[in-house]
Specification:
By secondary structure, this protein is of the alpha/beta class. The protein is built from twelve helices and nine strands. The protein has two domains: 160 residues, 3-Layer(aba) Sandwich (Rossmann fold); 114 residues, N-(1-d-carboxylethyl)-l-norvaline Dehydrogenase, domain 2 (Orthogonal Bundle), CATH 1.10.1040.10. Strands 3-2-1-4-5-6 form a six-stranded parallel beta sheet, with helices on both faces. A three-stranded mixed beta sheet has the order 7-8-9. Helix 4 runs parallel beside helix 5, helix 8 crosses helix 11 and helix 8 crosses helix 12.
Length: 294
């Protein structure tokens, strides 16, 4: 069976290792970036540089995106010399960006109506570590035939790919993922501060609870970074965006979400206070000093 020609746009901390996995799997991968220096290493590894999103789409059967937000997706797809200009009904787009579910559905509907091109919204979880290791979790929405093609491609860098429903379902599932992470980070910030003020060695708390029901990836990553004030690769602004998307969809569907409402407010506060602070920056609402040092 002939492998589809791939195109990848969004070659940052996540997109670059994902593309490297595809190259190792033997795919032809076309790449484009506004800053050409970002793709030098990928070109050396065998990727093919293209001059624009339209050029990339013209020479690709399946285009993958992993950009910043819905506005970035809209620009690269429908902007001047965008993907839509090189799209045809036999091509597919797989969007790994985390975006607003309703906006994703609108863009997918528009692309289908104008070009016939299928759209799979396939946000990922697992962060940079998962991208490097090829162990990402993909939650996807789209037509069944489009998702099966996406599943085959994603197996190069993901350990799980779950079809969650029609277009937009992947993004809605990622919103649920972010809701759980945000709430868990928030309660860990409270717990660390609570322990510290009672005289507990708060920096040891994640290891103390490891293996019990309070344990999680958040405990072993985010909580430890909070205790040390370690650098964070995911900004507080991104978490605020995701919480706001959750509340927006809640308004459309009539959902009561008191926990997410509170978490969204906490992220607004830390973002206003620190200018960034990172995903684990909620700890800065309680203290200016780390609880633990290396």
């Amino acid at each position: 069976m002939t492998r589809p020609r791939l195109g990848f746009i969004g070659l940052g901390d996540m997109g670059t290792p994902m593309t490297q996995h595809l190259l190792r799997r033997g795919y032809t991968v076309n790449v484009w970036a506004r800053a050409p220096e970002k793709i030098t290493g990928l070109i050396e590894a065998g990727a093919v540089s293209r001059t624009s999103p339209r050029d990339l789409a013209t020479h690709s059967d399946v285009i993958l995106l992993c950009v910043f937000d819905a506005a970035s997706v809209n620009e690269v797809v429908f902007g001047d010399d965008g993907i839509a200009a090189g799209a045809t009904k036999d091509k597919r787009l797989i969007d790994h960006t985390t975006t607003h579910p309703a906006l994703t559905r609108e863009m997918a509907t528009r692309l289908k109506a104008e070009t016939g091109m299928g759209w799979v919204d396939a946000p990922v979880s697992g962060g940079v570590k998962g991208a490097l290791a090829g162990t990402l979790i993909v939650m996807a929405g789209g037509d069944p035939s489009d998702m099966e093609a996406a599943r085959d491609i994603a197996s190069a860098y993901a350990k799980h790919f779950t079809a969650m429903g029609p277009v937009g379902a992947g993004q809605a599932s990622k919103v649920c993922n972010q809701m759980v992470i945000g709430a868990t980070v928030a309660v860990w910030a409270e717990a660390l501060n609570f322990a510290h003020r009672f005289g507990v060695n708060a920096g040891d708390l994640p290891d103390c609870l490891a293996g019990g029901w309070a344990d999680s990836a958040v405990a072993q990553d985010h909580a430890k970074r909070m205790a040390h004030f370690a650098p964070d690769t995911v900004g507080a602004g991104l978490m605020q965006k995701d919480m706001d998307a959750a509340l927006d969809i809640a308004g459309l569907t009539g959902c009561e979400m008191p926990v997410t409402t509170l978490v969204a407010d906490l992220y607004r506060r830390v973002y206003a206070q620190t200018g960034e602070g990172g995903q684990a920056g909620l700890i800065r609402l309680y203290t200016d000093e780390p609880f633990a040092t290396e």
